[in-house]
Amino acid sequence: MRVFPAKSHFALLAAFPVAMACTGGSPATGQNTQEHPGDAYYAQYCATCHGADMTGGMASSLVDGQWEFGGSREEIYRSIADGIEDQGMPAYRNALDERQINLIVDAIEGVEYVPVSTAMADEPEDYDVLETLDYDVRVEVWVGEGIEVPWGIAFLDESRALVTERAGPVRLIEDGELHPDPIEDTPPVAAGGQGGMLAVSTHPDYEENGWIYLAYSHGLEDDGTSGPRQTRVVRGRIQDHRWVDQEVVYQAPEESYTTSTGHFGTRVVFDEDGYLYFAIGDRRDLPSSQRLDSPNGKVHRLYDDGTVPEDNPFVDDEDALDTIYTYGHRNQQGMDFYPLTGDLWTAEHGPRGGDEINIIRAGKNYGWPEITYGIHYDGRTITRERFRPGIEPPVWVWRPSTALCAIDFYTGDEFPLWRNHLLATALRNEDLRLLQVRNDRIIHEEVILEDRGRIRDVATGPDGAIYLLTSRPHQILRLTAIEEILR
Ligand code: HEC
Q: Which residue, by CA, sits nearest to atom 7 of ligand 1?
């Protein structure tokens, strides 16, 4: 949990040149202790008096084995925390926390430093602390400048991630740094309203085949940037910062393209067998969600190359589109698999008072707009019916709505108590919720973050940290654990 890379160590040394000036030397290089976070704290707080190499200066040596105030670990700790006021040794109880003092004692005692979690590898200097039921959580701005309305994120490997911006660009982040130039030649999008460049995902065998999937609103005119529009899925590869090898994975029937700029869905996810699922919203044409000849208001299922699996539920129905997996949805912008059952869960942005979490089962009707817990945003009734035999009820409903957006089942090591819990983001409410799941049910809900902007995506990073894409301010936040709390 306690890693400071050489990078931040040097940053601290550089920030306190005075500490180095004491001995007139430069910091020791190439030695093991160089990596020790305790050394960095020592350089910042102690070196001016005890010498850059701990051998003494204005105050005594800390490495000659002689201790006036006690040489046990606990005694050294107390000398630092409580200070020795009458001798001019300041108390550090308030300036440093327990962990930092322990790290300095480690450095003095020559205790080797063993990093235990790569998630902490870039512990930031600036962060806010969130108190949740299980953890004190560190919230850091991972990407702060230069990104606009980030919509979706996909990690390519340990150090790189792709992020879509709704206006169209696809951006690369490497080691926490936003590449100044968007990926070249990504498909043009019909931006506007809720439309634009939306979901990004990698193929389950990305490391071998390099396939990256993009879902976006595609226009019929002006090279895809205007005219009637509809959700489209493509895949391609990135070579030398350029989008290449593009193939269309899903394109809707032309008659489903409309001028509506709302309710495009979507996310692109793969199950354990490699089937691809994505969602299209009702495109503000409510009855189309119930019509099996329309792609709207549906979850679709495909092979990774866009061909239709022969066991899709409606392939034998001549009037139905073969790609349809489930129907009766409003606008799903969150999709993920519950690791303990393999079920696909979706977040459906509902009407007023009707945001839903659903479990997706082949061929089922989820009711929109025939049944719903919500009403129209202008207060009109949609229906009084909330339940009907034969229609799948939601697992969870929010009244009032939070303006639900993305979901992610947490799968990292950084927050062990949250493994397989569901993270759900909200736009209008600007919050992140943690939902505890048991089988097919949600049994507890906690708002863990608020007031950091509209949150459009949430993902577990390869380092176990939780990443959030926010708008207003446009940022990517990174959440890591400070410590587990038993409340
Ligand atoms: C302003 C000068 C100053 C700073 C800064 C300072 N110390 Fe001291 N420290 C002293 C003095 C003076 C003493 C007592 C006299 C001595 O050094 O023999 C002392 C004593 C100690 C002792 C007890 C030594 C013994 O012989 O028992 C320890 C341990 C110690 N300091 C550690 C630290 C650490 C660790 C830091 C940084 C977190 C630090 N000091 C920062 C001045 C300072």
A: 89
Closest ligand 1 atom to Cα of 70: 27
pLDDT at 114: 63
* Beta carbon of 79 within 6 Å of any ligand 1 atom: yes
Q: Quick one: 345 and 441 in the same domain?
A: yes
Rounded to the nearest integer, the mean pLDDT of the chain is 90
* CATH assignment at residue 78: 1.10.760.10
Active-site residues, by number, are 263
Q: Quick one: which atom of ligand 1 is closest to the CA of 56?
A: 17
152 with 276, same domain: the answer is yes
Count Cβ atoms within 10 A of the Cβ of residue 208 and give its class: 0-12 exposed, 13-18 middle, 19 or more buried: exposed
| 3-class DSSP string for 229-277 | EEEEEEEEEEECCEEEEEEEEEECCHHHCECCCCCCCCCEEECCCCCEE
Q: Which pair of tokens denotes residue 348?
A: 């459906």
202 vs 200: CA distance, rounded Å: 7
Asked if pLDDT for residue 238 goes beyond 60, the answer is yes
Other C-beta atoms closer than 10 Å to the C-beta of 12 total 20
Same domain for 213 and 276, yes or no, is yes
Task: Please give the Cα distance from 2 to 133 (Å, whole number).
Answer: 22
The 10s digit of each residue's pLDDT in 346-381 is 999 999 999 999 999 999 999 999 999 999 999 999
Pairwise CA distance, residues 475 & 486, whole Å: 31
Positive or negative CA dihedral for 293, 298, 299, 304?
A: positive
Q: Tell me the CATH number at 427.
A: 2.120.10.30
Which residues constitute the domain of residue 438? 128-484
CA atoms within 13 A on the CB side of 419: 9
Cis? peptide before 473, omega within 30° of 0: yes
